[in-house]
Each structure stands twice: as C-alpha cells, then as structure tokens.
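Take a look at this chain, tokens included, and explain the fold to me:
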Amino acid sequence: MTGVKNMNFEDITAQSRQAVTEILEKARLKAGDVFVIGCSSSEILGDQIGTATNLDSANAVYDGIMPVLKENGIFAAVQCCEHLNRALVMERAAMEKYGFEQVNAIPQPNHAGGAMATVSYQRFEDPVLVESICGKADAGIDIGGTMIGMHMHSVVVPMRISLRKIGEAPIICARHRPKYVGGQRAIYDENLM
C-alpha cells in the first residue's frame, strides 16, 4: 500500500463532502431521488483498484457523503465490486419505495463487495443488498473508475465540479436528464436540461 502512511483521512472526508454538495447543486436533485456511489478505497490511496482495500478511506468517504445525502433526503445506493456483480447496498426504505428486489449477500472488504460497500452495510440504519436498481439513479459519483453508469437513467450527462480527485482517485460525476423528444420543432424546458 503506497498511500496509507501519507493519507489525511480528514481531507478525504472534506473532499467527499465538497464533491457531493457540488453534484447535488448542479444536478438539482430532490428528496427521494437516488444517488449512486462507486468507490475504490485502493485508488484513493494511490494503488490500483482492488489491490489495497482500506476501511479507513471508505469510512472517510462515508463521513463526507452520507450526511449531505441524508440532510437532503436523497437515497444512497453504494455499488459493490465485480465479485458481487456490482450489486448495491441501500436502505430498506429506498428498496421498498422503488420496488427493487433484495438479494442475499453481505459485502466483505477483501473478498466480495469492497470497503465502501462493507462500511455502508455496517453503518446504514436498515441495510439491504439489491442486485439492480434498474437504471434509476438520478446522479452519482465514481471514485476511482468503478463504472457506475449501468445504474443511471438512460441519458447520462457527465458533470464537472471543482474537484478532480478524492485522495489520489480520479472522480467522474454524472447526472441524468430526460430524453429530448420531438426533433427540431420541439421546445425544451431549460430547467430539465
């Protein structure tokens, strides 16, 4: 692990909080929307994805992101690693609201699930694992190249925010927008673009 000795986890929390705050402002999310989080704790430390799983960096990201989502009434969906087929950890209330189907697995940091999914499963009030959210995420953040796009609505728009990294991990932010229909004669609602 190259980065653990030099990593300031308070900075990771602050960066995570700043990133999610900017995304929520730009994406114009509302209470009840779904925000997907993909996170490589290895990449945050400067290591290759899947090689240096670290619960401290995952807890730091959790501490930055989750209070902001909770304050705004946004549901979190935390993506597991490929060993659990990118299943998602979420609160039971979100699963029930959207009619997602629960599956049976408990994320583990070094085996199947990853650090962020493990931390979320441990810290959520009533966590469940769902196999899919059927492309219902309204916005999200991909920390370290975890590929969250499969969980987003069909029209995904990349977003630039003031941060480019959390720790050493590059971030990609995205939101969805409604499809444009009607062709060149249509007039579009600027608030939905």
